[in-house]
Batch of 2 targets.
Target 1
Amino acid sequence: MLKPEEMTRVVVVGSIESLDATIECLYELGVLHLIDFTEQDEEFRIGQPLPTASDTSQKLLKLRSIIRSLEIEDHKPARAMHVHDIRSRMDQALVTLDLNTSSKADSRQKIQALVREKEGEIRALEPIVPFAIPVELFDGYDNLSSFVGICKTDPSAALTSKVAECEVFADARKSDVVVVAFVKSEGRTEASKILAEHGFQEIKLPKVKGDPDEIVVQLRKQIKELEADLARIEADLDAIRKQFADFIISSDEHLSIEILKAETPLRIATSANSFIIDGWAPSHRVDEIRTALDTMCCGLAFIETVSPEKSEETPVKLKNPKPVKPFEFFINLVSTPKYEEIDPTLVLFITFPLFFGFMIGDLGFGLSLVVLGAMIRWKFKSSPDLLKLGAIILAGGFMASVFGLFVFAEAFGVPFHPPVENPDEHSWEVIANIPIHPLLDKMRDSMEMIAISLVAGWIHLTVGFTFGFVNHYPHSKKHAVGKIAWLLVLFGLFAEMMVIAGDATQTSHFMNSTVLSPIPDVSADMIGIKVSMPALGLIVAGVLGIVVFEGAMALTEVVGVFTNLVSYARLAAMAIGKGAVAVAFNFMLFPMIFESGNIVVAILGVLALFVSQAFFVFFIGALSSGIQAIRLNYVEFFLKFFEGGGTEFSPLSYERKYSVITK
Amino acid sequence: MWFAGNRGNYAYACTRVKAKKRFLLSRDVYSRLLVMDVYEVGRFLGETQYREEMAKYASVYSGANLVEVAVTRNLANTYSDILGFTTGHLREMVGNYLKRWDIYNVKTLLRGKMTNVRAEEIVDTLVPAGAYTEAYLKSLIQSSSVSEIMDALVADAALAITPELVREVVDAGRLAPLEDHLDQRMYYDLLKVVKGTVSADKLLRDFVREEIDVTNLKVLLKLKAARIPEDKIVKYLIPGGMDYSIEKLRALAQAEGMPPIIEELEKSSMYADIREPLERFKTDRKLSGITIALDKALIRKSEKFAHFYPLSVLPIVNYMIRKKVEVDNIRIIARGKASALSTTVIEDLLVV
Amino acid sequence: MALDPTAVGLALVGAGIAIGAAGIGTGIAQAQIGAAAVGATAEDPKMFGKGLTLMVLPETIVIFGFVVAFLIYGLV
């Protein structure tokens, strides 16, 4: 938590004969993060790929083109195939597949192109069918220019009046006009100008002879025949798919793994008779590598731990307890933290559901989200990202239900009890008398909600600056102290806001009398605003500190702290806005449902209510609340401390899904 | 955007191109490609941005041919892609910049046709990255004679081919005049679209003019080394260069032997980039070092420009250049491997 | 506070303008950033997180509008 897994810098050295065995061994373990060797010199060069690489590559190229021809990229074999079977069938299968698929895929492609071509010809000929002029008569004259095309408006009148000796045929269609014009060559430029004014678009006629209508009928017939051919080929390909798809996908996986290993020497420094593998490994697993190398490489290769150089970047493997882990999704979406940095996943685990829950704040929608999250997790077991997303939605939905039940006391935008001020409002009292009364009313306690948002913002930002302090402390005490100055400004600003709010909200009253009570109540009135002297003092001291520790340029960002704090008002804004939308729909549609007395109108009302609630309130609401909740973390929170740009820990390893190997 | 007129979608296009740029192969990857054999190179590329084309052509081609065809088609697709997602004036500039590929294709297919190369072989060497689609070019190749092809080309007003040039090609069988015309026309059109009114566009204009300089200098070096007389050389020169006007180049062409050109290059703004090969040339008389260095200098310049105006046409042109360089490099590696050149020889030919 | 209804009405219109104008401003800013973010994500899906972060930055402007609107609302 907060810190990634501890890594140790290691070097694996050995004699060149043991390179194969060492690579095999490291992939089996899957714990060594390799540092690519790039600086070649006289003695050490990058290694040669293992001898199998060339042949395997050739096979893979073939397989992948077959996969493409058969369109089985997404095929998932029902069970894993044994590597032994893959090897024994490979050569024979490749020959068969190569013979059958590529020729079939080729003819399929050719036929498809032909069909497209003929369809294009039909498209070009169709407009001129009404003229019933043989196609070859449309052009090919020595001193006569012809125009065939489609205009937006009819140009006939303009053409005949302005161009000497021209003949125009026009056929008006729904939204445009098909135009055929024959013009003496002298009048060509004038005619094309007029046509351009009428939005002329040329039709390129195919080089055929005869009546267009007949030709179109002919072409249609030909297309039918071609499509029958296509269906036959497709059936053949289907037969190949049935027989080989599993084998192809399994082999692709197996050969890819083979290549991965065979080309690992390209990332390793080798000399005439030795090799050096630089890398990182989780500290508690170094011994594991040592033992494995001892047993698998007969003492020809061994591992040493070394102290890393300053410039070297340690790969990062985030370490969080299981419930927190899904929230790493949000971290990966932005950037991997650096090794020395604090990993903020834990804060996301706490704040995201809280923010999200507060914004949704509805038992009905909350429970729906819980169901949605659970369904995503159940349906998409194989996608790690969706699994995480499902857990996040689940957690957010849970908090939304909690807020909806205990704080706002409402479900699906309808309160458990009507508000005191308006006892006629629709509520769940009609159905059941739930013994919970709202602590906050979205529509009436808006100031209270903004105050709560500000408190949440203050706490969140304080954690952010504190993280910034911790991150900077090891390498720059000056910058670390700068973060304390920022904390002073933040605290001053927050205190001042609470002083202005005074007793207007319970939240500010509570803050003033507890957390802020040690601050002496010395204040002055400036332009009608109550300004707390100690708060002002804190802000001034903080700003001075910022100038000293971070330079004058940082001053421009002081306003930013205020902006950041106000930015949390979006928590209240989203809750109120969503609440208002739900209430508006209910207000409009409930009378239709309950008071119209007409069953059809009532059913329509229920449908409209369902659609509006499902789409506007539930879907859009959940989406935007999610975005806002994560934004407060990404922008307001992360920018106080997070640099990112770390290297993700990606050890030498592979995963076999569709192929198995037995020892 | 309502306030941007139809200048183009710079924000979208530039970030997209910037994201593409991160996928260009790094120097380390080249050193690994050099160690691999040609099948491994093909497979490796099939796991990068070249995936689609590698899989598509692997059923028909293999070895170095596969790599060459796949990477050039990928280049063409990438360019069409970029042209496809730009709009407004930006698209116009990109489109005109890509016109060089139309010219290249026309030249290639005419040359192929006149020397009776098989149609499939001509198709393989095409790079359909401009306005002419692969289907259109194929239909041209399938035309029975050169004169038919010329008829089709004359119909394209953008190429502005005169009947005189047609006669040269069809009757006299001479391609050179047409090729020169097309090159000059291409740069003329490009400079017409890239106006100097916006400062970023002005930089592109300057860059294109410097490109003309480099093209002219390379022609001059090559022809001069082959002792071609001045009046022949001048025909190949393209007007509109930045530092070297046609007159200046003509004077160099007239002068006796290579030394005057070398001296001129020593005074040029690119001297810092080409000093080393220039010195080497004095002893080994090999031009390839200088031409590669000139190209590198140009690439470096485009790189610099791209950083000046991140939301302009410059980063897009820069990416298109870098992509072209990458494809050229891969082709060199594949061809070099196929003809069993040593790693160091291939390495020297790469522009990294 | 006993205010004359016209004043209350005008104040509420002001609150509306505060949110509306802030919304338009945010929209203009987000249009460009959004286009850029979509461009980057189209090439590299990993850019989604960064794009989203940058995209929602200007939203604070709306929140300002919201807070101002509620301060006005609280006064009347």
Target 2
Amino acid sequence: MKKLAIGLLILVLFQWLGELGVRVFKLPIPGALLGMIFLLILLSVNKSLLPWLETASSQLIRYIALLFVPITTGAFFLGPTISNDMPTILAVLAIATVLAQWFMAIIIKSVNAADD
Amino acid sequence: MIEMAVQQWQLISGTSWPLMLTISGFAVCFWFYQRCGQRSLLHPLLIATPLIYLAMRLIELDFSTYYQGNGVLNWLLGPATVALAVPLSHQLRQLPKLFKPLTAALLLGGLFATFINLLLIKLFGLSDTILLSLAAKSVTSPIAIGLTQQIGGLASLLAVATMVTGLIGIVVARSLFRMTNIDDDRWQGVILGVTAHAIGTAKAFETSPRCGAFATLGMGINGIWTSLFLPASIGLFIR
């Protein structure tokens, strides 16, 4: 419990640092993402914070789908202009995802072949 | 006295019902998902949201009240994004060994995944609002939601698109790996992480811990990379 609380506190602190950084340097990325980059840099130089973060981060990531429930429920309230386009949207998503996987497979094959 | 108690009750019920609805709905679906051997089509997000929608219709709860009542869950998306640094930091030592192929796969793969999506949206003649809402669909949701709000898309539409992308990604991946002869579990992980984000990463962990670790790496780097190039290039696609 103590580790969870301290871990969450560290995560919030880094989010705040990220939001501060985004505002000060006028960066076009979400503040929490910059906070993640800050924490990643710190953890790659010094691992002493890691034991404190393990519990909070693994619990947050394990139940992360719960955090998307309110926003995803909003999809039922998007209104007719967008829900009429839903079949097209789903088709685009399916084609784009398959093409992206196929493209990555080709890249990986050719880079590995060039290395051998 | 009684009047005050009634007022208090209304205040509490007005703010905590939506949260209870979300958590209990999700808990039931999560339990069901695990009972049924974690099949992709029974993903808790996929069954919990229509269930909650029906419950909202039943108790006549409107979306803005519901959404505000769930403020704490939305707020937690920030710390959850920062938390991704922890699994990522465990994978960073894998980087030097595979630096060249991994960089090529991540940077080119991330660019292609986003641009093919934007081009298809244009090709099918969908509106700019939809384009802005779907642009970040292959990025992991906590990052994608922040990114979508930044470029001016609808977060709810993005959330659905991300979920659908992840599900399609894991359904197609297996036969794609067979057809293209990608049999190394590390590369399978990278592809799943970049194209199917968190849902793909969860699937990758079912193959092997190493596959899951590379999926985490792919998902994390792709999130950072897309956040850098997408806001700068989205202007090319809108009128």
